[in-house]
Amino acid sequence: MPNYVKQLIAGGVAGGLSKTAVAPLERVKILYQIKHGNFQSMGVWRSLMCILKTEGPRGFYKGNGASVMRIVPYAALNFAAYEQYRHWILEGYPAAGTGPVVDLVAGSLAGGTAVLCTYPLDLARTRLAYQVKGLGNTLAQSAVLPAPYKGVADVCSRVIKERGIRGLYRGLCPTLYGILPYAGLKFFAYETLKSYLPGDTEPSIAGKLACGAAAGVFGQTVTYPLDVVRRQMQVQSENALVDAQFKGTLNGLSRIAQTQGWKQLFAGLGINYLKLVPSAAIGFAAYDSMKVWLRVPPRERRP
């Protein structure tokens, strides 16, 4: 089996495991970002209990099917593309060495590639996660979204009918603006921290978990406001939030700060840390462990 196929498999498995492990927290974070009902004032625990009471345990994973459908190919492409871009950079520019700049550039390019290929599934996941049974689908501005979606296919078909193919990529710009530095910083931080772990052999699982968690927190903190803009753009439609349409990423950042307060740009950041630490840790550790299990040749260690 070619190494790039093994890397795709390792990345897909890592992405699916990490995303499913934190799905309940991811759902609450999305509800915070979009200012759904009174979720922001409830706090994490009460929000989780509200979802449990109104929708049962399955409510914690509402939209997770779309999320996994997206994250498996996304993570597979992200990790495999990172390895490939890194290889091309080192092959084309050997003077670059194996330092952190290579990880930063390769990670950014890989993140952008993965987003472009899987973005419609992310939009579908957000719209599905936004719907809370029994509480309606009304935002703080009292605008009402269309009838509940029945699944990923229903979201995509209705968005295409409403806004055309371009509608499936609404919010793509802030996503790219955020993912390019985020993915690059995440790989840069992970590989840098991992290089300081003791021993010449493969680092321990605990070491990988710690490095992955730190890398995820570092990258996300820098780019979080763009994620808030992306989520709000994803639930906008011709039938809702007509007066709140954003003309672009910078306009979205400005409008949210002016109309909702600058704190809204960091809405859900606390809960994002709660889910990001285990998610990033599991993702990186699972990827490296899967590569060992699949017998992917190790990369050269930094001098």
Quickly describe the structure:
This protein is mainly alpha-helical. The protein is built from eleven helices and no strands.
Question: Can you characterise this structure?
Answer:
With 303 residues, this protein is an all-alpha fold. Helices cover 69% and strands 0% of the residues. The protein contains 11 helices and no strands. Helix 1 (3-21) packs antiparallel against helix 11. The chain is globular. The model is unreliable at 137-143 and 238-243 (pLDDT under 50).
The level of helicity is 55-70%
**What structural class do you assign from the helix and strand content?**
mainly alpha
Total helical segments:
11
Mean pLDDT: 78
What is the alpha-carbon Rg in Å? 20 Å
The proportion of strand residues reads under 5%
In whole angstroms, the N-to-C terminal distance is 30 Å
pLDDT under 50 segments (min length 5)?
137-143, 238-243
General shape: globular
Please summarize the sheet with the most strands: none
SSE run? HHHHHHHHHHH
The count of β-strands is 0
Catalytic activity: ADP(in) + ATP(out) = ADP(out) + ATP(in)
Organism: Sphagnum troendelagicum
Subcellular location: Membrane
Family: Belongs to the mitochondrial carrier (TC 2.A.29) family.
